[in-house]
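Q: Predict the bound structure with NAP.
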Amino acid sequence: MKIGVTGATGMLGRIVIEKLKERIPQEEIIALVRSPQKASDLQVEVRRFDYNQPESQTASLLSIDRLLLISGNEIGQRAQQHANVINAAKQAGVKWIVYTSLLHADSSTLSLAEEHRKTEAFLKASGIQYTLLRNGWYTENYTGSIKGAIASGAFLGSAGNGKIASASRADFAEAAAIVLANEKHQGNTYELAGDQAYTLTELAAEISHQTGRPIPYKDLPEEEYANILKSIGLPEGLASAIAGWDVSASKGDLFDNRGQLSKLIGRPTTSLAQSVANTIAEE
Ligand SMILES: NC(=O)c1ccc[n+]([C@@H]2O[C@H](COP(=O)([O-])OP(=O)(O)OC[C@H]3O[C@@H](n4cnc5c(N)ncnc54)[C@H](OP(=O)(O)O)[C@@H]3O)[C@@H](O)[C@H]2O)c1
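A: Predicted complex:
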């Protein structure tokens, strides 16, 4: 039995490989990566694999039974890229694809949702056995702004009082490894989110508490927040997208209270306080 993992040199993929090694023999794991030189430390078989090169994908997928398709990070290209991978997997005889989708992909207003909806539909139509891991927000998406918030004296966003049930990247990676290692998960769709839901006001209060400095949350209109992100160097498209994702968060798109992630991993998801503490310790 062989398990292939795409995007294995990415932040999520690296943790999935580690967590898989705890569950299955290392010889059964294959890292599918576009830059093999970045994968030399993974200590599993490595094969070259680029989402944009369908002509070479089938050969790289031969002998793989189970495939984790980690969604790509080139927003706008991904529906085609993922379709390429699913087509190649079918040709190569892959029996089961586990796909990292988006929380409530079928109804989410997040701009990212459309590519995930298209991929889910393509996967369902492929006839290959599948599992959907509809991942909610990584807590790291927000903790990445803590340093800037401490420097500027406020945590900025446009998420209003939206509740965000995020979990750490490691929590989602562990869930993926657990699913891949056991075929009882075939055919399931998991809505994966953290046990604890918080508003950005509560996140700012946690940062204030842990640093001993007042860091209030400042809620901004979408355009104003996007302009600030642009002014600190983010590309225009990304700045607008991030502000838009916050607006979706304000509508509840990042909230879920089913507890499916903690059930899968058999422990509570990483708390907000822990994630904030980890980030502050890195400073
Ligand atoms: N749930 C969330 O909050 C959240 C947040 C951010 C991203 N995501 C999604 O989850 C995915 C994994 O997250 P992450 O943190 O691991 O992101 P990441 O570190 O950016 O990893 C993305 C991976 O995709 C690979 N990749 C990109 N384009 C590719 C291509 N054309 N062919 C082959 N591989 C390609 C990258 O390869 P290289 O290593 O060679 O660059 C990398 O390994 C992201 O790609 C994105 O779809 C989710």
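A: The pocket of NAP is lined by residues 7, 9-13, 34-35, 38, 49-52, 70-74, 81, 100, 135, 137-138, 141, 169 (CB under 6 Å).
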